[in-house]
Amino acid sequence: MDGWLFSFMTAAALCLLLPVLPSIYLLPALLFGALAFGYQRHFILSGLLTGLVWMASVGHWQLAWQLPDSKIRQVVVLEGQVESLLHEQSVQRFNLNVSGFDHQPVWQNLKVRLVWRKPDWPVKQGQRVRLAVKLKPPHGSLNLGGFNYQQWLFAHSIRATGYVVRSEQNLLLEQGQSVRQTWLDEFATLDLQHSAWLAALSLGYRGWLATHDWQLVQRTGIAHLIAISGLHLGMVSSFSYGLLVIFLGPVLGRFYPHCNLHKLALSGALLVAFGYAALAGFSLPTARAWLMLAMFVLLLNLQLHWRPRRLLLVCLALFILLFPLSLLTLSFWLSFAAVLIIYLVFWRWPAGRGFSVMTFISALVRMQLALSLLMLPLVAWQFGLVSLVSPLVNLLAVPFVTMLLLPLCLLALLALALQPDWGQWLFSWADRLLEYGLSALLRFDALSQSAFAVPHLSLWIWLCFALALIWLLLPKGLVNHAFGFVLLLPLLSAFLPSRDLSWRIEVVDVGQGLAVLVHRHGRALLYDTGPAYPSGYSAAEGQILPMLRALGITQLDYLLVSHQDNDHAGGTTLLLEQINVEQLLTNLGRCRYPWQTVWQGLRLQVLWPLADSEGSQNNLSCVVKITDGQVTVLLPGDIEAAVERELVARNTLSAQILIAPHHGSATSSSSEFIAAVNPEYVVFSQAYLNRWGFPKQQVQQRYTDAGATLYLSSASGQLRFRIDNGRIEAEGLRSNGLNPWYMEQPK
């Protein structure tokens, strides 16, 4: 059975790496094969085929409903229930479980993600609403090291994204506010200094945590403590079990002496844990933890003995059956890896008989060190960050949170529902405790080299590193440790000095905006910083900085800002705060003709604007030409046809690589300009289905007629040009042929 379960999970996970799904007409034959192999006791093959059939079926089901082409960016009317937990603000982002689409019932579960600016009423979880919206297929920027929004949408079964438009059809059909939303609203009225952290611990709501809070969490390695998951459910069930035994024991002993107190307390604790999981909104980590707890209690009550391996495999297989798309979430793999590591630790160093404080502390330290070490490859690969203080921080923070802070928060939350004044008083004590904890956390974070960034490395390198660590921890008599050191070689070789003489241009996928990175020998310059939005999100934070960390770039020699429009300069302030910039050049300062310099063997020239130029911000864009003598790239910002004619008259514009002016607007890319540049490659930096329709079809046609190869950042993702001795290699992250089926570019 174990072999079948393991092969089932392996095939389900590997199915997510396929470029295309098996045909839906092939699935019945594969299922028949799985049953036949199972009947013949070929359990490995049976499990593999079953896993493939299951995940392919889920994939086809998720892709069965696609937003009709005729409805894309057109006003449609949706009816449904608000799923997201929300607090009042001017811009609301929420998931809507749709029951009606354009006054027609929906035949399957349909979820969309919406933005509503200045909503007509306070939007709350649980409300039934009717909304007029404009939708488009799920899509997101794709950059090295950046957040994969499209994968996140698919993992959460979101079939479309869009925004609510002003309309008389926008109606609140039913108030229906959830208990969890009521608690959050009550929580928001409390006078607390650290309400964001306390809401995360108490309700699993992390919407109030700021960017600097998340950075602190990552650098100190305590993310698992602010997400309601296995650790929290384990503590809640343990406390519940103890209290039930204490209070029910005397009653049962007197009135029901034959009742099994142990089984009753276990079942009661499981119910309390279920309530706590519901309080956290039954997020995937919470549901996964409760499922394992339920299986553990069931086995105890039925007096069945399963080995830990069997229990783990059954729970994971059940979770894949119930929540198959969770395989696309990082939390699944972090939890899966953590459980495997704990199992490995107790197998490798079994606890001695009897209990003593020193034995308990020794086991706790050993487990924490093993978790920190063996989780390092996964964390480094995903976040590009390694926390050196994480082991010590967690040794102190885990008991502090689970034994003191968490019980106090839960007691305060219960009191808040019964008597708000008591809740305020208890939460004020929790606030004071948290103040001490955060002060200690900040002290650890302030230590020199508390955390350091690691450059982007291949997944296979990190897998070899993880296998090497596990191999070296196994007993000497079981394996030859020399092989473990061999597995370390790929990681060590990745940090050897590079002899690569090429230079690279990275056109960052920032949506409707522009950011272009040029780097060579670990040194870099950035042209434009992408857009920033009223919500606080910016492309600099979400895409550019993670990409720089992934490339191992710790400073910018030059930051050139073409002009002051938000889509080009929105991230400037944040970048100046987050990374060292040696020289800043803008079109309001030195980024004007005739500034030029030689940098890393490349000649940088500013061709426009002139010192006395006047006009719109677009036509005052800083136009930059970069060349190594053989290959030239032209960065024209948002100039329009009038400036293009001036440049054609004043300069030699010939360039092999051109970032299309003004994202492909019809007011730019004149025929004279295209003929003067004569580009081989043209890149349009634009958002998917943007409201301006960039790049315009006639503009694309002019470049195509000139013989250029065209790239759209919305279709290619981050686009890299590698230039080596006159040779140009171009590759887009989304269009490299290695992306799985669920990342297919929407049509």
From TrEMBL:
Membrane-protein topology: Multi-pass membrane protein
Transmembrane segments: 43-63, 288-304, 311-327, 363-383, 395-418, 451-472, 478-496
SMART domains, per database record: Lactamase_B
Domain of life: Bacteria
Keyword Transmembrane attributed: yes
Every Metallo-beta-lactamase domain range: 512-688
The entry's keywords: Cell membrane, Membrane, Transmembrane, Transmembrane helix
NCBIfam families, alphabetized: ComEC_N-term, ComEC_Rec2
UniProt cross-references to PANTHER family, sorted A to Z: DNA INTERNALIZATION/COMPETENCE PROTEIN COMEC/REC2, RECOMBINATION PROTEIN 2
The name this protein goes by in its record: DNA internalization-related competence protein ComEC/Rec2
Organism: Bowmanella denitrificans
Taxonomic classification: Bacteria, Pseudomonadati, Pseudomonadota, Gammaproteobacteria, Alteromonadales
